[in-house]
């Protein structure tokens, strides 16, 4: 016979861990420390699973076998069932490796006889669970699962009615929370406190109001529950009922004298909660009961009318206005009901307010007004209605944005034309200099771009904006409209320069096809020395753009005012792939700048080791020095780029010349590095000057000290017959003289 398979529900078999019972019990069974052996753990786990899953109809039991439902199996007419139940009771209460509280909880889940047997063994009826289980008592647990017969048994055995767990729950609160009416009624009759509260000051009445348990609520009120108690958030029962749409409960609470204008800590009354929740029938009920119509909640200082408009509760808006609500009220941010309705796309409510006569030009603190909001929502009719009522068409918000800019950015042709007919200004710009045309361009609204371009007095300036932002379709459209590609901005840049600088290769191609000068410079005329598009692309590392420009005839030899070429720029910025491409295409690898620096010198000084490697591989002259006498090696060492310095040394750089330079300048760290790289400590210059001679002449005491410590010969003479000591005497540097005298004595 094929085994039947359990079909698992979509939701977890056991409830999530919370205040509700008996999910805490399941957690207990998950703790291996609870059992002395794995076997006993498995037995208890399976038993608990069977009890729950059978009750939920989720398992199949063998024919002739059944389990009593949790806490409800009192008697059985079936002998087999009675025997099974008896065996389960014995299993529940007899295992020695189980604590008293757990045994009693398991018994409550099983049957009355099981509970009686555990209690008969001396287990206290008021025993508490551990902190892990929030100190739950048997009565609280039984009330939470709605087992009236066991609740009665526990009370008869002396269970204390008003004991609380660590979260403040009493048995009555648990019964109210779960809607167990019979249990709750019994507990009240036995004297349970109807106004007991949890740690968060929730009372049984609040749970009933919150969850819509009308009969429970009525019974609690009948037994003395107070309607106007507030929890630690300031919420009362009528607020919870209004918030959750329980009309009948709100009505009953009002009849029992509940205060209609109590406010929670955030300043919200029952009316405000009803409006937020969209319960317009309850809002009407509360208004009829005299709820304050102009009360302001504390967070945003919004009245019921403002909230009703914001949430699109049109009938409530009408009712509030008919009751005398202030139509011109504004919130903390300066928004009126119309602006709130429009901003939240409640167009019917907004239309009603316009027709009612609300002020239409009221703007909030950011100067955002109803016309802007209507345009943002794409409502032509409301935009038209607002303009007809006198809305200021060219009003600007805090950022300088107008309704026309918003409409253009959305590509809403119908509204744009309407605004233009009402004298909307295309020449207005926001605080960032953007016009309505630019808003349309940014969003690639091509039809709008074309339309507005035809309305512009001078459209050529817009080409710069489109090019610099990489708006290909917009550039294409402007070129079709004969935009001038040779135009220059205030810096002397052409559109092609901007495209090259920003790496927009496809736009570069468009502009060249449109007649742009590929070798234009950023001067007032093409002949003025300055940057070319190729230099800008190379200096920004845009290889694709560089490739396209070279392939289309860009001048590789062009120089700027500092005699820098595209290769110099790429080397200085460290763009290895661009450097490789330019060198491959014939760029002068040793081009001298106006200060004598070469691409290699710039790459070395900036620490671009991969660029240095490429240039050396391609034959760059590493012996060249700039106008200050510094070689690529000197620059690398002085900037701390020692890996580059070693690369240059390995390529054959004469480090002795650089040692002389370092000593003359007093670059002590460079001296140390070069000596460690085997530079000759007494190397002679063409004038027979040693590094020590040069350091002495330059008054570089620390450098001279290093050279002496490394073994420099202080007795060597230069071409004038002067030793290092003589040079020091001539310079009048006493500290240097003493250093050299002491060194000479030590040598003797």
Automatic annotation (TrEMBL):
This is Uncharacterized protein. ANK repeats lie at residues 134-166, 167-199, 200-232, 233-265, 266-298, 300-332, 333-365, 366-398, 399-431, 491-523, 529-561, 562-594, 595-627, 628-656, 687-719. Keywords: ANK repeat, Repeat. It comes from SAR324 cluster bacterium. The keyword Repeat applies. InterPro entries: Ankyrin-KH/SAM_domain, Ankyrin_rpt, Ankyrin_rpt-contain_sf. The keyword Repeat applies.
């Amino acid at each position: 016979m094929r085994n039947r398979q359990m079909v698992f529900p979509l939701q977890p078999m056991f409830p999530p861990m919370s205040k509700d019972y008996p999910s805490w019990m399941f957690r207990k069974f998950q703790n291996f420390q609870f059992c002395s052996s794995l076997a006993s753990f498995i037995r208890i786990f399976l038993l608990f699973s069977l009890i729950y899953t059978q009750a939920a109809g989720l398992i199949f039991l063998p024919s002739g076998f059944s389990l009593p439902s949790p806490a409800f199996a009192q008697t059985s007419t079936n002998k087999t069932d009675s025997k099974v139940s008896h065996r389960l009771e014995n299993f529940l209460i007899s295992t020695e490796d189980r604590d008293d509280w757990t045994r009693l909880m398991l018994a409550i889940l099983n049957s009355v006889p099981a509970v009686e047997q555990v209690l008969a063994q001396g287990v206290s009826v008021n025993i508490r669970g551990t902190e892990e289980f929030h100190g739950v008592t048997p009565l609280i647990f039984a009330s939470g699962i709605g087992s009236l017969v066991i609740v009665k048994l526990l009370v008869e055995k002396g269970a204390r009615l008003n004991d609380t767990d660590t979260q403040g729950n009493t048995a009555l609160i648990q019964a109210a929370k779960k809607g167990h009416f019979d249990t709750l009624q019994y507990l009240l009759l036995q004297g349970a406190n109807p106004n007991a509260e949890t740690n968060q000051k929730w009372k049984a009445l609040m749970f009933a109001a919150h969850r819509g348990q009308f009969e429970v609520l009525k019974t609690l009120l009948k037994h003395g529950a107070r309607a106007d108690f507030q929890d630690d958030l300031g919420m009362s029962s009528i607020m919870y009922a209004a918030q959750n749409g329980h009309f009948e409960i709100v009505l009953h609470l009002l009849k029992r004298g509940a205060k209609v204008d109590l406010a929670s800590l955030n300043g919200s009354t029952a009316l405000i909660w009803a409006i937020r929740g969209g319960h317009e029938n309850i809002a009407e009920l509360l208004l009829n009961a005299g709820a304050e119509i102009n009360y302001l909640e504390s967070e945003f200082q919004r009245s019921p009318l403002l909230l009703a408009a914001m949430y699109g509760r049109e009938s409530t808006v009408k009712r509030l206005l008919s009751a005398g609500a202030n139509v011109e009220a504004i919130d903390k941010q300066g928004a009126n009901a119309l602006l709130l309705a429009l901003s939240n796309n409640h167009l019917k409510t907004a239309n009603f307010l316009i027709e009612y006569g609300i002020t239409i030009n009221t703007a909030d603190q950011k100067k955002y007004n109803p016309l802007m909001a209507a345009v943002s929502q794409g409502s032509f009719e409301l935009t038209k209605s607002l303009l007809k009522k006198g809305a200021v068409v060219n009003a600007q918000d805090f950022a300088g944005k107008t309704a026309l800019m918003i409409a253009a950015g959305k590509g809403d042709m119908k509204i744009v034309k309407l605004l233009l007919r009402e004298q909307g200004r295309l020449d207005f710009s926001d605080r960032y200099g953007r016009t309505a045309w630019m808003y349309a361009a940014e969003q690639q609204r091509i039809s709008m771009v074309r339309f507005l371009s035809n309305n512009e007095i001078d459209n050529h300036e817009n080409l710069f904006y489109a090019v610099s932002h990489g708006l290909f379709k917009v550039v294409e459209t402007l070129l079709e409209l004969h935009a001038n590609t040779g135009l220059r901005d205030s810096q002397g840049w052409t559109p092609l320069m901007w495209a090259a600088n920003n790496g927009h290769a496809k736009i570069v191609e468009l502009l060249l096809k449109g007649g742009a000068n590929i070798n234009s410079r950023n001067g007032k005329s093409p002949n003025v020395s300055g940057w070319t598009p190729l230099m800008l692309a190379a200096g920004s590392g845009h290889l694709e753009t560089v490739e396209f420009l070279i392939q289309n005839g860009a001048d590789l030899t062009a120089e700027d005012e500092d005699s820098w070429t595209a290769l110099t720029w790429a080397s200085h910025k460290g763009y290895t792939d661009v450097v490789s491409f330019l060198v491959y295409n014939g760029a002068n690898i040793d081009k001298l700048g106006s200060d004598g620096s070469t691409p290699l010198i710039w790459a070395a000084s900036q620490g671009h080791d991969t660029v240095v490697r490429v240039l050396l591989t391609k034959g760059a002259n590493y012996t060249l020095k700039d106008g200050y006498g510094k070689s690529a090696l000197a620059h690398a060492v002085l900037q701390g780029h020692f890996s580059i310095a070693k690369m240059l040394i390995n390529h054959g750089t004469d480090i002795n010349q650089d040692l002389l330079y370092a000593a003359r300048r007093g670059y002590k760290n460079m001296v140390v590095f070069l000596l460690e790289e085997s530079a000759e400590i007494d190397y002679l210059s063409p004038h027979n000057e040693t590094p020590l001679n040069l350091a002495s002449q330059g008054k570089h005491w620390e450098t001279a000290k290093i050279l002496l410590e490394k073994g420099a010969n202080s007795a060597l003479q230069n071409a004038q017959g002067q030793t290092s000591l003589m040079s020091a005497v001539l310079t009048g540097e006493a500290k240097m003289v003493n250093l050299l005298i002491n060194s000479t004595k030590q040598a003797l």
